[in-house]
# Entry
Amino acid sequence: MPLFNRTPLAWKNLTNDWRRLAVAVAGIGFAVILMFTQVGFQNALFDSQVKIIDDLQGDIFLVSRAKYTLAAEKRFPLELVDQAASCPGVSGAYPLYTELTLSRLKNLSPGSSGKAYPIRSLGFHVSDPIFNTPGITSQLSKLMLPHAALIDVRSKRENFDFPFDDERALSAVSAELADQRISLVGTFQLGTDFAHDGNLAMSAENFAAYFPQRVRVGDPLSVVDVGIVHVNKDANLNEVRDLLDSIIDDSVFVLTRQQFRNQEISFWDESTPIGIIFTAGKIIGFIVGMVICYQVIYSDIADHMPEFATLKAMGYNTMYFLRLIVVESVLLSFVGYVPGWMASAGLYSVLADATGLQLHMTLGAMLLVLILTIGMCIASGMLAVRKLLAADPANLF
Amino acid sequence: MSSPQMLNSLPATSGAYTNGMQIPKTVKVGHLNHYFGEGELRKQALYHNNLEVRRGEIVIMTGPSGSGKTTLLTLVGTLRTVQEGSLKVLGHELNGATNDAIVRLRQELGFIFQAHNLFESLTAYQNVNMAAELQGMNRKLADERITYLLTRLGLGHRIHYKPKSLSGGQKQRVAIARGLVHQPKLVLADEPTAALDEQSGREVVTLFQELARNEGCTIIMVTHDNRVLDVADRIVNMVDGRIRSDVAVHETSVICEFLRRYPLFADLQTSTLTEVADKMMVEEAQPEDLVIRQGDPGELFYLIRSGRVDVVVEENGEKRKVAELGEGQYFGEAALLRDEPRNATIVARTKCLFYTLGKVDFKQVLDRSKSFDAEVRAVLASRT
# Structure
């Protein structure tokens, strides 16, 4: 039987009654929005976990094998960074120090609570190419002063109520980090995540001064949190990585940027309830969509039982009806998806402005939701088609 | 010499022998029983139905509601499963037929339901096209036929209208076009003209007749619409799940015409004549067959439907041919009237077909004829 040039019954039935179509589009669009918000928030939260990785320069990263997430304070000896720097194909290797446990920032200005709140401190040698964000690299000279630090403007406001907009007022604020005076000489942008409510950036020297207890004995800068390796432009990244992996002590992971990112995201996705919660959210959206879609297709079938029975009497077979409902389901999913997608895109930009979350309409998210939508409509169509197959032409006479 | 043959007590009005032995039947129903419900609630809906429908015939089924005519129609239309007995449609036995065979067979049938059952979302043209498409009809031919049928049914100006802008009668006519577009070999229609005014109802049945004549399309129609009874080649009357009468209209009128030539029957009303015709049976004789022997007791009245016979009288041991009778003539009445033995011998000259009426029935008819006559006289006499 020719597929084309046939009466497009599925489409005609779907579009015949615009009120019903509007209800269908609204319902399925709603399910699409539900799924998009779940996918969007999940991606946004995972993106914010790895935002610091995105803001770092470098091609290969060294982290302690025990450091299952960036927030876990597991470190490795500085010598390994130096060892990496001497490896063929490597143009440089630099340490990045982070501290959360000891790093507590207290606002001492009048009217503040005077309580100390944990904030992540990032320490690095000012001369090293660590960050790629101009917000930090343009203010490196300010960091060379003792007690100087930059504060993340996207730090949690309730805990860190500083005048971020006014640099002069900010530097005049009296504050303490780990019970020592600190002067906030400027701001940069990084963002918060599940583990960190704010960020400070400072020179390695200042870092060492604030957190001497990082190590029991010796130089606080002798243990590194992340090693950042730059690879020669003409060298093959993967070869260098493999080489480093074979040379460097097994207590350290040698990761490319992508591996580093994936490792961090998979921790939050798989080892915390976050992944499950968002998966549950997506399933709920899917089920809501299925119920709505089922209702739409079922009532379409129920309202046309005599007509479908007539088609059966004419000699249309089961395959025709199955195909009809699949086509109708796919059409429904498309007409529901497009407005749902548009509404979600609008919602993303509104929410991104309001929350500071990284809500992006990525191709992956669009494809995922589209496939879920089509699957949801076909599944409900297949549930509803049983009604159609039960149509009995004997009742027509 | 042998005697003429009784043909399975076949009624004369069945028309089974009108044109000699018939070619394969479109529909052949044999000892068909049907039941609804199960177990304790099982109720028989059809009892031993027998029916033959020839190619190109228009059959009208009548009977009160609940008489089983719709059940029989759905069985013939493959819409119900045959439970007991035999049902052949277009040469396919439906008892035990596979699902695939039934779906294929359905494509050769045309259905016209009491409700129009049109898709609201499709135009008249598209609705009709749904039937044409299934057959994979040539686009151009299908287009021509759809346009022809819709125009023919008075919808030429509404071909691309959706059902909601059509009146009830117009919708019904679209449904009729849909049932006919794919040149079905058998059309099953349920009250096709009920929703139509007289003129369009007439147009529909005229179209049926044309299809029956020109395309050999067989039409079985359930209707209570007396206005269209005249197109029927055969009228089947059902009561309580049984086929009470199955009458070939043309053949019956031929019989009535012949009967009327008999002086004693000449005054009878058509309804009475039809009843007489209904009681007649078919008998067949080969050349040289002895139909009646002189001196035998008379039991039957004979009407010659076809063929010729010789009347031979035996007097003083000498046989003398006194007459030759042909189509439309009758014999055997004298012995019945006077309760005497046969007064002549009848021998078939050619192959013959007779319609016979039993003695009891014959006398009953005569009594009615007399009483009718007497009644008329009484009425006339009472006029002053």
